[in-house]
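Question (not urgent): is this output format expected?
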Amino acid sequence: MAEYVVRMADGAIRSLLDSLPALLIVGPRATGKTTTARRHAASMVRLDRPAEAVAFRADPDAALGRLAEPALLDEWQSVPEVLGAVKRAVDDDPHPGRFLLTGSVRADLTADAWPGTGRLVRVPMLGLTMRERLGRPDGPGFVERLAAGPPEALTTPGELPDLAGYLELALAGGFPDAVVGPAGAERRLWLESYLDQLLTRDAGGLSRRDPARLRRYFEALALNSAGTADHKTLYDAAGIDRKTADAYEALLVNLLVLELVPAWYENRLSRLVKAPKRYVTDASLIGAALRIDVTGVMRDGDLLGRVLDTFVVAQLRPEVALSPGRPRLYHVREKDGRREIDLLAEIDARQVVAFEVKATASPGRDDGRHLAWLRDQLGERFVAGAVLHTGPGRLALGPRIWALPIAAIWG
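Got this back:
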């Protein structure tokens, strides 16, 4: 059995169980929710196993009362009545550390009612990051460290990837079973099977739409990940209408494999677009959808930039989701497209940290010109900007703007 990789969510779960009665671990399928939750549980019930589910179907309140706490209820959607029992148990006795629940990402979407409101606190469990793989899950995230400065204090790993190395990491993805298990052709097969199940069985439970059309739409999203393409461009490419595309987009967001990063808006910058930026949440799904490897990505300059941008956001997303300060992620783009900033993190609605992702090993001052423009517009609110690149160097590009290796995120 592979050694457990400590996750960023472990610290959050441990802390929240000390103060709250019930947690719901949420995230895309196969991101390790059950594996992590069971490390914090005194007892566990697999409700997708008929023999273990019988008592909970017959009398969920009595069955729940016999479990050592914290009790893990895995695949809770197999016996949805258990949610009502959890609600009643918490209402009767709200002492901390009673229950952990894990299950299908789509389970609460199909429920007629959701009794967990006000009783279950959600803890996000996203893809495996490089920080976690290297055994560094704790401590401030990259956004917070960059905001605290100075960037000269940021460390980087001893061995830095080159461009091909970053793409290999990106296309390997963050699903633990794919990352720590198979490699090469076997990993690609695992990822393609994952995507096939997602678009047929998982999505099929929420939508009666044609899975072939849903696949075409996802392929269009994969080609445009980390972009602000007009929605009509996407659904025309998939051969579907606007109504169907809206339903598919909502479906994929609910399945947590698509994220809409909102546009950042400031009154003094009235020429900013307000459309969201769409990200496939794991770059490995881009490779699986398009059946493309590192060599293929390196031959497509547009896709190369999108894969790198998607990979960087996948590294930052879990940190931001679990950060005590709860930074919010945005993108910035002028309506005429003259200036665009890949990612902006707003901390406490006051401080701003911004990022550009560049597929270059030798960044120069020109690569930070859009960050400099934003800094000049925002003044002291702009605390730091970074051009994240594929080379080894770190370089000051101007006041509060630096060029840093992408690997500084997990250094």
